[in-house]
Amino acid sequence: MNRKWQLLLGAAALWAGSAMTASAQVPSTSYAPNPPAGMKLYAFSSGALTIGKGVLQNFGPMDPPIKIPVGFYVVHHPKGNVLFDTGNNDKIITDPSYWGPNFKAIMPVNTPDMAIDVQLRKIGLTPDDIKYVVVSHMHLDHGGNVGKFPNSTLIIQRDEINMAFFPPEPYAGPYIPGDAYVLRAPTGSSKPNSMKMVILEKQDMDIFGDGSVVVKSWQGHTAGSQMMLVRLPKTGPIILTGDNVYFRENVEKSLPPNLVLAYNPAGIMRAYEWIRFMMATEHADFFTAHDPDAFKAMKKAPAYYE
Ligand SMILES: [Zn+2]
After folding, report:
1. Residue 224: how many CB atoms within 10 A of its CB?
2. Could you tell me which residues are beta bridge partners of residue 247?
3. Residue 276 falls within a domain, yes or no?
4. Domain containing residue 80: CATH number
5. Is residue 38 part of a domain?
6. How far is it, in rounded angstroms, from Cα 297 to Cα 152?
7. Beta-bridge mates of residue 231
8. Quick one: DSSP state of residue 228?
């Protein structure tokens, strides 16, 4: 073999090696996923916020402000129900001052029917019927109601706990101290947490071990953001993006978000890439939390995806 070919083959091997490393990080499971019959995915609304699109989208217009939904999801799995995000804290229904200046700034819909227990009742569930609570992150419109699930197990990244309790400047605004404080055990307790918790150290978690509900550690929007891959037996895979993706167009046109709320912009762009990879390889779809058009088109509980 001549020297040139040796070099070329060496480079190809290197390239293949790095490609394999990259793709080895991408799949969530190293085995064939096996979503069980009877799995369902429900979408819920926890009201809406009013915000200049430019706060979220790079170069987006600030006027007129747009109304964005606040979505959260329930996955019914034969081994237990998984809640993905918990919406705005129900306290703002009776006490808007709980959000401080945030309330006036983003004008949440805070009618009593937005309360999370009222929403869950649409599919006959109470908070105690939720086995796992997964938070995409602890911002006020996602982690608001974690305290309403004291008998569930919270799945969260260590990095997000740190953000929620003491965020670095300038990321403090959207974290409500009271939303995090309920996670602490009473004074004097030898254990730190008030409820069962799985605290992940930049790790993924295949909740039921069958590849059907996989929490993805994905630093982007915040330091400890998580997405969740839900592989449904009939619909196929759906990625719940949290705020790593605001609008469908972010992924479709590779549009970066406004940096104001992006802790790790490169992580966000990589999230878009992974979603496109999953769309190409597993015909996945993705649901965001705040896309007005996509949310309108989505089936809402008690209707479901199976
Ligand atoms: Zn949000």
Report:
1. 26
2. none
3. yes
4. 3.60.15.10
5. yes
6. 30
7. 237
8. E
Residue 172's domain comprises 34-297
Ligand 1 centre to CA of 273 (Å) is 20
Cα of 57 vs centre of ligand 1, distance in Å, is 13
Who's near 171: CB < 8 A, 6+ residues apart?
163, 222, 263
Distance of CA 128 to CAs 82, 91, 180, Å? 11, 19, 20
User: Does 2 reside within a domain?
Assistant: no
Q: Which pTM value belongs to this model?
A: 0.90
The H or E element spanning position 230 is strand 226-232
How many angstroms separate the alpha carbon of residue 232 from the centre of ligand 1?
A: 24
Total domain count, the chain: 1
pLDDT digits over 174-204, tens only? Answer: 999 999 999 999 999 999 999 999 999 999 9
Residue where the block lists tokens 């090696």? 17
- The three-state secondary structure class of 247 is coil
Angle at 40 between CA 77 and CA 38, to 5 degrees: 65
Q: How far apart are CA 237 and CA 242, in angstroms?
A: 16
